[in-house]
Amino acid sequence: MTPGGTSHARSGLWGRTQGIRTAELTREAEGGSFGVGAEVTRTAYFLGRRIDYVLQVAAYDPPRLLDMISVAGPMPMHVTYTFDRHPEGTLARIRVRGGDGGFYRLAAPLLARQVRGNLVKDLRDLEARLVDRG
Fold first, then answer.
1. Global pTM exceeds 0.90
2. Spatial CA neighbour of 79 closest among 8, 5, 16
3. pLDDT tens track for 71-96
4. Which of 90, 97, 117, 123 could disulfide-link 78, Cβ–Cβ 3.0 to 4.6 Å?
């Protein structure tokens, strides 16, 4: 884990994390199963509110990369997960980019801080689960 926080909602291991409560494959990729074109429906809680959204897989290169863009939800979102080898295991990173207009521009500092905090919690929860299994 890096300071500043990186996280992953468990591509392929969909389950519960701090911010994301459910995530399920709701549309398979054209060739079947999970991959480019697949859609994942998620329910998360942010600032005490329930948020339902759908992310479509834009790029998928396991076990290194999962890139998704929102196709339905309250705000535009682009989420990139990367995984790299690390001397102590695997380094998981998440980059979340959102809308830049109107309300989002004004609220950006608060939203960024809240998102960063949720991602750090998610990664810590994931790390704890993986260490407990090992």
1. no
2. 8
3. 998 878 898 989 999 998 888 888 88
4. 97
**Range ranked top by mean pLDDT from 12-21, 24-33, 56-65, 91-100:** 56-65
Give residue 133's pLDDT. Answer: 72
Both tokens of 109, joined, read 């500092």
For every residue of the chain, DSSP letters joined together read --TT------TTS----SSEEEEEEEE--TTSSSSTT-EEEEEEEETTEEEEEEEEEEEEETTTEEEEEEEESSS-EEEEEEEEEETTEEEEEEEEEE--SHHHHHHHHHHHHHHHHHHHHHHHHHHHHHHHH-
Q: Provide the token pair at 95.
A: 């980059």
What span, in angstroms and rounded, lies between the C-alpha atoms of 70 and 96? 11
40 contacts: CB under 8 Å, gap ≥ 6: 14, 23, 24, 25, 26, 54, 55, 57, 68
Contacts of 21 (CB under 8 A, 6+ apart): 43, 44, 45
Nearest to 117 by CA among 35, 39, 4, 22: 4
* Tally of residues, the chain: 134
